[in-house]
Design brief:
Layout lengths: L2 H17 L3 H18 L1 H7 L2 H16 L5 H10 L5 H13 L3 E6 L2 E9 L1 H15 L2 H4 L13 H15 L5 H4 L4 H4 L4 H15 L5 E4 L2 H7 L4 H13 L3 E3 L4 E4 L1 H21 L4 H8 L1
Antiparallel strand pairs: 1-2, 3-5, 4-5
């Protein structure tokens, strides 16, 4: 299937997922599991989950696990070629992952000029823990899948997952290109979880497309290990983009554009996971029948 058809299928999957009765439960579980990971290493995750950095990490995983490419020079070349990140940004993320004990570097025996990357046990455990938040919520929507953090332990499944991810990310099928409105949140430290938090809190109380919430900048800052100034900056950007309205006191109104953006963000996230696993909602629906 060519990338255009896969992208069209991705959006069809997204819309189908958004219409399923368990969608908000799946989003809430994804948020909670992601927050569990985040709270264990908040300084790391607030940095790494910012969209441009996250795409570098995903690209590194793609080339290590999906394409049998391990050298830093090749990863820099690929990220530069596909406009994912500059060589300096790649080195910064590699250094962060290496310093944190998630990656290790070795010299290529056949070419000592090349530095190869390998995932450490800690790196693999962190990857599994993070992917629990991607896989487990899909069991609410498709119980027959029985996905878990152990799903990628089989090398053939892991290779398929990251090979298919590489095909998408290297064609630019990423949030900045397919859902730019989400950039208000996902391009900021702690932003994507803040967006999901506001969505889940709103849906606890109402299914309306305009909802006013009580909120505290201090609480949001503490939850996501960011400053109140940073929270204010994110919310101001969201106001300018027509996603929210600021009310008097500690109240915030989420507008229809916010719900469309946040729900499409979550739907695309789940649709990408299905795509990378080489599954699709049509096939799953047919299997159920």
């Amino acid at each position: 299937m060519d990338i255009k058809k896969r992208t069209e299928l991705l959006f069809r999957q997204c819309e189908q997922l958004k219409s399923m009765p368990g969608f908000y439960d799946a989003v809430a579980l994804h948020y909670q599991l992601s927050l569990d990971s985040y709270k264990l290493q908040p300084l790391f995750y607030k940095i790494i989950l910012q969209e441009s950095r996250f795409n570098i990490v995903l690209a590194i995983c793609c080339v290590i696990f999906g394409q049998k490419i391990h050298s830093v020079s090749e990863i820099k070349e690929i990220c530069s070629r596909y406009k994912i990140a500059s060589p300096n940004s790649v080195i910064a993320i590699v250094t962060l992952l290496k310093t944190g004990g998630r990656l290790t570097t070795v010299r290529d025996e056949s070419d000592r000029r090349k530095v190869q990357l390998e995932a450490t046990d800690k790196g693999m455990q962190d990857l599994k823990f993070y992917l629990k938040g991607a896989f487990t919520p899909l069991n609410i929507l498709y119980p027959e899948l029985s996905l878990s953090e152990h799903t990628l332990e089989k090398k053939n499944i892991r290779r398929t997952f990251f090979s298919r991810a590489a095909e998408m990310i290297f064609e630019g099928i990423t949030y900045p290109n397919v859902l730019p409105a989400a950039g208000v949140f996902v391009n900021k430290d702690g932003g994507r979880l803040m967006m999901l938090h506001l969505l889940i809190e709103a849906r606890k109380h109402s299914s309306a497309n305009k909802v006013t919430l009580d909120y505290s900048q201090k609480r949001l800052a503490q939850m996501f290990s960011i400053s109140r100034t940073h929270v204010r900056r994110v919310l101001n950007d969201a106001i300018e983009c027509g996603l929210i309205e600021d009310e008097e006191g500690s109240k915030i109104t989420l507008l229809p554009a916010f719900f469309e953006t946040a729900e499409t963000y979550a739907g695309l996230y789940f649709a990408w996971v299905l795509d990378y696993l080489d599954l699709n909602s049509q096939t799953l629906k047919a299997d159920e029948a």
